[in-house]
Structure formats: structure tokens, C-alpha cells
């Protein structure tokens, strides 16, 4: 309580006012009401004072006082005018009550209510209060927005269950019943807004307890999850498209889980998932299996590479060979999922064919460069389609081409040779591989010579041929020497055949008086077999003869092709072995025609040969087997023919003869290098 004069100065104060103002009485007496009032409250204070003056009645207001430390305190001041005996204002009696606690509580309540209002207004959730019959009593501002409700009055009192038509009505009813029992009801369902927009909601219904603890009302919170549902649907569609793509593309895809040991070293990995292309390229179904089950000796590289990706999350791209699969793979690996799952996705392609082609091309290119380095006389460059010769350095052998030339065929290739040259070029372009051909060319002096020409394709970064680079060696002297040798061989053969004919004639004249003609005829047939073998060798300039050709040439004079079976790989025999084999097969065929399978109409002869490795050294093995002839009897004596047979393929034996009753069998074996020796 205090007494204040008309200027607002304190005349008397009690201890309670001093406490409220936080000042001693001595200080208060030096101050006026305006000195201790919060500036914002001065006008209301003077207004209350004026009211008290005019009416003579008490005027009351709530105001804030300022304490010395700057803090504010709320108080209620009641101002009463006191007059003297003449009716003039003597002073004012001010009764001040401390209402700070109440004001702070009211402010806190207002702040809390405002905060709750803003929360509800800004929340995207639809918050509703229902009575126990599920009728709407309240809806938050944010809820009205998301439910597209412009005026709550339009839905107040509406049964909340009626907002859930269709399949989700039972779910809403179950949630209400659960909340009425004191529990929590929750479900997800679809329901339109008040304006008919389709929405998906995640709904929770809980009880609001009364003073007795029993449910008095229900609180329903609905969250719009339409975007989530749409995203889930889009994700499902995307995953389905992705899986369809994975199941149809040629690229192999797999998800693997990497296993680490106690020292955190990768030691294995399991195939969690794989597409069909993976199984095709790997050649085995590894889904659900650890790789070491299939490939216990798999290279350490694969574990380290995948382990690094799984541990660090750093993607990896590489090409590497897997010996267990006998394939080259181009691999892209990236970590997926949580780091602790140690899973990675792998996308890879089988590039074995490309690597093999690259290796072959590299080897071919190396040989080609060696050829050029060794001194090829001519180097040239051609366009991708060989229509244009871009440059040629003839080194004096051929005429140089200093600028691109579209008429190079006319300049270098004779008309009769062009079809063969162009066929070889077309084949190389089709194969995208080395061109190689021995052919004639017009030399710088106008005459024709021979070259061994070889060119390799040059590729750009996209794999397209940009040009061909080639070299040609002058092989004219060798070709001419081979032609001269062929003439000499034919002359030698002619003279040798004349000599053999003369030998046969002399033998006939000398042995004319011999009564037993069989040895004489056998001698003549052997000489004829020897002459046939010489003819066969002459076809290859006495370099070699095919074993199959030897068999066909010798046996065709004894039996028709239908009674012969010849089976074996192409093997070139040296001249000595070819002559020896001709005589040997002649003797076997003669014996078969006289005593064995070829002496009957149903008999036949099988001749089979192959290469067999013994102790690392390959041998040629030839089997002679007679079938369908008369019963066989072993000879009681050995003549020249038998001794000739037992000399074998190379003249050094290695022959086993079995005179089985159902047909003669003979096995001949000789070192392959001896048979092929020139």
C-alpha cells in the first residue's frame, strides 16, 4: 500500500510495496510512480489515475513494475482518490497486490495453447477428437487442409466411420472398438477427402481418459501416406521392370555376400542372387552356394577384389581370367545394402572370345612386325575397303605410290590374277583379320614377279577399321626355283619310271623260263607299287605324301572303295616312310586278296591310324584289320613278303601280326618324327 500525491510521488509506502518494487523505503520516497512503471504501462496507469480523479471511485489495472535489476513484476493497483474537508484532492491511496505468479502462469498457458495451435495447424496429420459414438467433435487446421475441409461445421457431428467406405470400413470399426476398450487401434487404408480426392492413410485411434480413468473421448490421428504408397507402387513396377531386364539381357548379374575370417580377410563369397545370363556365362548354377564349393582353387584375386569393394564401398572395374571357369570376365562391382552386410552387386560379361581374338591379333601383329623388321621390301597402306591405296614404298622392287591411288589394281596386278586377290581381300575384310596371300605383281621394270603379301587391320577406339597396314616380300627367286625343281622332278620321275619299266622287262626276259610264275608276278607288282609311290611323292615335289593318299593309291588296285574303311587324321609322311608304307600295304593287300578277307565277296579291310604319346614322344600307330573272309591259318614259313611287312612303317620294325581265325590283324608303330622326316 502507498500514498501518492497528484504528481505521482510516493508519500508513504508499506513493506509489501517495497518488496514488490525491490527497493528500500528511503529510495522509493525519492521516486515517482512513472520511475518504477514499465514504459509500455505508463499510459494505462495515467488513464486509471484520471478515471479515479473524474469519478471519485476506485480505478484498478494490472501493470508491470521495473525492479532495480531490470526484471519486471506484475501487480494489480487499485487507485482511490482522497479529498480534504473542502473537497479538493488531498492525495491518492494505491493498494498494490502481487499478481506476478498468476500472470506468469497465464502467459505460459497462452504460450502453450498458441504452440499447440501452431503445431496442429502446421502438422500434415489430420488430428480429430471423436465422441464414443465416433462422431466428429474437433479437427485440426492441418487436418482440415489435408482432408480438404473448408468449414468444420460441414463435418461436425458426422460419424467418422462413414468416411471409410469399401474394404477398409471394417478396419476403421475395429480401430474404434479397440480404443473404446482402452487399447490402440491402427490400420492403413484408402479413403477419399471431403472433395473426393483419393488418399491413403496411416491411422491411429487411442482413448482420451476422463477423471475416472475410463475412455471419455477418442483421439484419431490420420497421416497421409499417398505419396509413400505411390512410391511403393512405382518401386514395385521399377523392380519388376528391372528384374525383367535382368532376366533378358545378355549381361550377367549377381549379388554376392563376402565372407571374412577372424583377421578380416575375404576368404569366400556366396551367390545370393543371379540372373539367367550369369548361369549361362558361368556354365553352372551357383545361386545360394559358396564359390569355394565349386572352385576351391579359385585365384586369390577374386576374393581380394570383391572384399575391397565390400569393406570400403569403392566401386571396382576390371578384366580378369578365372581358371576355374576357363573364361575371361569384364567385371563391374559396387557395394549394396548396409556396410555390415558385406554384399556387392556384380555386373559382368564373358569376354573370352574378344580376349582370344585380341591375343591372336597381337601374336599376328607381332609376327607381322617381325616380318617388316626382318627386311620386307615393300610396305603399303590401304583404305578400310581396299578401294584406295593410300601409300606404297616399293623399295625399288615395285613402283612407289606417293599419293592415294584408286587404280592400284591396274598398276600392280595382272587381270587374270585379280579375282583371286580380291577374294582373299574380301575374306580378310569379312573376318576383320590378317590378309595373307602369295601372288604375282608387276614390278617397277614392268616384268612380273612374286610377293608374299601380308596386311593387318588398324582399329579405332570404337572397333572400326580405319586402314590396313601391310608388307610384301619378294619371293620371285623361290617361286622360280620351285618351278624349276618341279620340272626337274617330273623329268626325274619320267626317267625313273622308264628305268623301272626296263627293270620289269629285263626281269620278264630273264625269268621267262621259270615255271613257277607266282614269284615273278609278285616281283612285278612290287615294282609297280614302288612306281606308284614315286608318282605320289612327285605330286608334292618329293617333300611328303599324305598317309591317306598312300592308302588310297595302293589299296584301290586291290579292292573297290566300298570294301575299304580308311579312318585317321591327315598325317604327312616323309619320302622314305611313304615308300616303305606303300610296299608294306601292298604286301598286306596282296595277301588279303589271295588268302584273306578280299578273297571273298563279303570281306573287307579296315585301316585305322592315330597318334599316341608314350613317355612324352608321339608315335604313329596304324591298325590293319580284315573282316568277313575265310578262316585264317597262320603261315608255316616266312617269305620275302612277310619279312617286308615286319620291317614296319619306318623300316625299323615295330610290327605285331595276329593271324586270328576271323581275320588278320596287324599293328604297326613308329615314332612320328621318324615317319615325317624328309
Structural class of the secondary elements? Answer: alpha+beta
Continuous helix count: 20
**Major β-sheet profile:** 5 strands, antiparallel
What's the average pLDDT? 84
Strand order of the largest sheet: 2-1-5-4-3
* N-to-C span: 142 Å
Unreliable runs: none
> How many DSSP-defined strands?
27
Helical residue percent band: 25-40%
Q: Supply Rg.
A: 57 Å
Q: What portion of the residues fall into strands of 2 or more residues?
A: 25-35%
- What general outline do the C-alpha atoms trace? elongated
How are the SSEs ordered, and which strands pair?
Blueprint: E1 2-4, E2 10-13, H1 15-21, H2 25-28, H3 33-36, H4 42-55, E3 59-66, E4 72-83, E5 89-98, H5 100-122, E6 126-130, E7 136-139, H6 141-146, H7 169-180, E8 185-192, E9 198-209, E10 215-224, H8 226-248, E11 252-260, E12 266-274, H9 276-282, H10 291-294, H11 300-312, E13 316-322, E14 327-336, E15 343-350, H12 352-373, E16 378-382, E17 389-393, H13 408-412, H14 418-431, E18 435-442, E19 448-459, E20 465-474, H15 476-510, H16 517-538, E21 545-546, H17 547-555, E22 564-567, E23 572-573, H18 575-594, E24 604-614, E25 617-627, H19 640-646, E26 655-660, E27 663-671, H20 672-675
Parallel strand pairs: 22-24
Antiparallel strand pairs: 1-2, 1-5, 3-4, 4-5, 6-7, 6-10, 8-9, 9-10, 11-12, 11-15, 13-14, 14-15, 16-17, 16-20, 18-19, 19-20, 21-23, 24-25, 25-27, 26-27
Helix pairs in contact: 15-16, 16-17, 16-18, 17-18, 18-19
Amino acid at each position: 500500500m502507498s500514498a501518492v500525491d497528484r504528481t505521482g510521488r510516493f508519500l508513504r509506502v508499506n513493506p509489501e510495496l517495497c518488496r514488490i518494487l525491490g527497493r528500500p523505503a528511503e529510495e522509493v520516497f525519492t521516486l515517482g510512480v512513472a520511475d518504477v512503471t514499465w514504459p509500455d504501462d505508463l499510459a494505462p496507469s495515467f488513464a486509471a489515475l484520471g478515471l479515479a480523479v473524474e469519478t471519485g471511485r476506485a480505478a484498478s489495472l494490472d501493470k508491470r513494475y521495473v525492479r532495480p535489476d531490470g526484471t519486471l513484476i506484475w501487480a494489480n493497483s487499485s487507485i482511490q482518490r482522497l479529498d480534504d474537508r473542502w473537497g479538493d484532492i488531498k492525495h491518492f491511496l494505491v493498494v498494490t497486490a502481487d499478481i506476478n505468479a498468476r500472470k506468469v502462469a497465464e502467459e505460459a498457458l497462452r504460450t502453450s495453447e498458441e504452440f499447440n495451435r501452431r503445431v496442429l495447424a502446421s502438422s500434415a496429420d489430420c488430428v480429430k477428437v471423436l465422441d464414443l459414438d465416433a462422431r466428429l467433435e474437433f479437427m485440426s487446421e492441418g487436418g482440415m487442409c489435408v482432408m480438404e475441409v473448408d468449414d468444420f461445421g460441414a463435418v461436425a457431428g458426422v460419424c467418422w466411420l462413414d468416411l471409410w467406405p469399401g474394404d477398409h470400413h471394417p478396419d476403421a470399426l475395429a480401430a474404434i472398438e479397440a480404443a473404446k476398450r482402452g487399447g490402440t487401434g491402427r490400420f492403413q487404408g484408402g479413403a477419399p477427402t471431403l472433395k473426393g480426392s483419393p488418399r491413403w492413410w496411416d491411422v491411429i485411434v487411442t482413448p482420451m481418459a476422463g477423471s475416472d480413468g475410463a475412455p471419455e473421448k477418442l483421439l484419431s490421428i490420420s497421416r497421409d501416406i499417398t505419396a509413400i504408397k505411390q512410391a511403393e507402387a512405382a518401386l514395385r513396377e521399377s523392380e519388376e521392370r528391372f528384374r525383367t531386364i535382368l532376366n533378358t539381357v545378355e549381361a550377367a548379374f549377381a549379388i554376392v555376400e563376402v565372407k571374412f575370417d577372424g583377421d578380416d580377410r575375404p576368404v569366400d563369397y556366396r551367390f545370393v542372387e543371379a540372373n539367367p545370363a550369369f548361369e549361362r556365362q558361368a556354365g553352372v548354377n551357383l545361386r545360394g552356394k559358396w564359390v569355394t564349393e565349386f572352385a576351391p582353387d579359385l585365384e586369390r584375386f577374386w576374393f581380394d577384389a570383391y572384399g575391397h569393394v565390400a569393406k570400403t564401398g569403392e566401386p571396382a572395374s576390371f578384366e580378369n581370367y578365372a581358371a576355374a571357369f576357363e573364361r575371361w570376365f569384364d567385371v563391374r562391382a559396387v557395394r549394396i545394402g548396409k556396410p555390415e552386410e558385406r554384399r556387392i552387386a556384380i555386373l559382368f560379361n564373358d569376354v573370352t572370345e574378344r580376349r582370344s581374338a585380341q591375343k591372336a591379333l597381337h601374336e599376328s601383329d607381332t609376327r607381322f612386325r617381325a616380318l617388316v623388321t626382318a627386311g620386307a621390301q615393300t610396305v603399303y597402306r590401304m583404305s578400310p575397303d581396299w578401294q584406295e591405296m593410300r601409300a606404297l614404298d616399293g623399295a625399288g622392287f615395285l613402283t612407289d605410290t606417293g599419293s592415294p591411288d584408286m587404280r592400284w589394281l591396274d598398276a600392280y596386278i595382272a587381270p587374270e590374277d585379280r579375282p583371286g586377290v580380291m577374294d582373299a581381300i574380301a575374306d580378310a575384310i569379312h573376318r576383320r583379320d590378317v590378309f595373307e596371300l602369295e601372288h604375282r605383281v608387276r614390278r617397277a621394270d614392268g616384268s612380273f614377279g612374286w610377293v608374299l603379301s601380308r596386311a593387318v587391320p588398324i582399329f579405332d577406339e570404337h572397333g572400326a577399321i580405319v586402314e590396313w597396314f601391310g608388307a610384301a616380300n619378294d619371293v620371285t627367286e623361290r617361286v622360280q626355283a620351285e618351278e624349276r625343281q618341279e620340272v626337274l622332278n617330273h623329268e626325274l620321275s619320267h626317267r625313273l619310271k622308264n628305268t623301272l619299266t626296263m627293270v620289269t622287262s629285263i626281269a620278264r626276259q630273264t625269268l621267262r623260263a621259270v615255271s613257277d610264275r607266282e614269284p615273278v608276278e609278285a616281283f612285278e607288282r612290287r615294282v609297280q607299287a614302288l612306281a606308284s609311290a614315286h608318282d605320289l611323292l612327285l605330286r608334292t615335289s618329293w617333300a611328303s605324301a599324305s598317309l591317306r593318299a598312300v592308302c588310297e593309291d595302293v589299296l584301290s588296285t586291290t579292292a573297290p572303295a566300298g570294301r575299304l574303311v580308311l579312318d585317321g587324321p591327315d598325317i604327312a609322311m616323309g619320302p622314305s616312310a611313304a615308300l616303305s608304307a606303300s610296299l608294306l600295304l601292298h604286301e598286306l593287300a596282296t595277301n588279303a586278296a589271295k588268302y584273306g578277307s578280299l578273297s571273298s565277296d563279303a570281306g573287307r579291310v579296315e585301316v585305322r591310324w592315330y597318334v599316341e604319346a608314350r613317355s612324352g614322344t608321339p608315335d604313329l600307330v596304324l591298325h590293319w584289320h580284315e573282316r568277313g573272309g575265310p578262316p585264317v591259318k597262320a603261315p608255316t614259313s616266312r617269305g620275302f613278303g612277310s619279312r617286308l611287312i615286319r620291317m614296319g612303317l619306318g623300316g625299323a620294325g615295330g610290327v605285331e601280326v595276329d593271324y586270328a581265325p576271323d581275320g588278320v590283324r596287324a599293328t604297326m608303330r613308329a615314332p612320328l618324327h621318324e615317319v615325317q622326316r624328309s
